[in-house]
Amino acid sequence: MKSRIPVVLLACGSFNPITNMHLRLFEVARDHLHQTGRYQVIGGIISPVNDNYRKKGLVAARHRVAMARLALQTSDWIRVDSWESEQTQWMETIKVLRHHHSELLRSLPRMEDPDQGSASSPASAGRDTFFREEQRSALQGWTFIIKVKVAWQCIRIRQKLSEPLVEKASLLCKW
Questions:
Q1: What is the CA radius of gyration of the chain?
Q2: Per the domain annotation, does 116 fall within a domain?
Q3: 116-145: per-residue pLDDT in tens?
Q4: What's the rounded Cα separation, in Å, for the pair 128 and 124?
Q5: 155 occurs within a structural domain
Q6: CB-CB contact of 107 with 133 (8 Å)
Q7: If 0-12 CB within 10 Å is exposed, 13-18 middle and 19+ buried, where does residue 135 land?
Q8: Global pTM exceeds 0.85
Q9: Domain tally, the chain
Q10: Using CB atoms within 10 A as the burial measure, which of 59, 127, 128, 139 is most buried?
Q11: CB under 8 Å to 115, separation ≥6 — which residues?
Q12: Dmax over Cα atoms in the chain, in whole Å?
């Protein structure tokens, strides 16, 4: 039996406010991906946009992040990441994807270095990491699935598919 591809779901958006439907989309996506038999969803990330997104009526990022954290208190697999909301300017989705890619790699335990003959300590030593040990080890062959709100964002991301990071990512576009 072929092993499943580990997947992290990433939703970028204003979450102004976060709703039950946002959370339900994660559940539906996870269930669908599991039913294919090809994927194992190991985590979900909600990434609220920065205050400079310039959306009329946008509540301050710190409040949107706090609301999302409250909404996710009972979730053991979806978390809020405030990095995007804390930046000095609005971030393109590809930059958010790069950030989460590098954070996930940083949270992976380092493998034994055959030249050194000893195992290195985890790169995230001392940090509270989201993924449990078995999930982090599964991330060796991970993929990201991101929800993109509008078609032009999908097109812009697909134009950058030559980037090594995006070649590893699957895009789930909401048209």
A1: 17
A2: no
A3: 444 443 333 333 344 444 443 334 344 555
A4: 8
A5: yes
A6: no
A7: buried
A8: no
A9: 1
A10: 139
A11: none
A12: 57
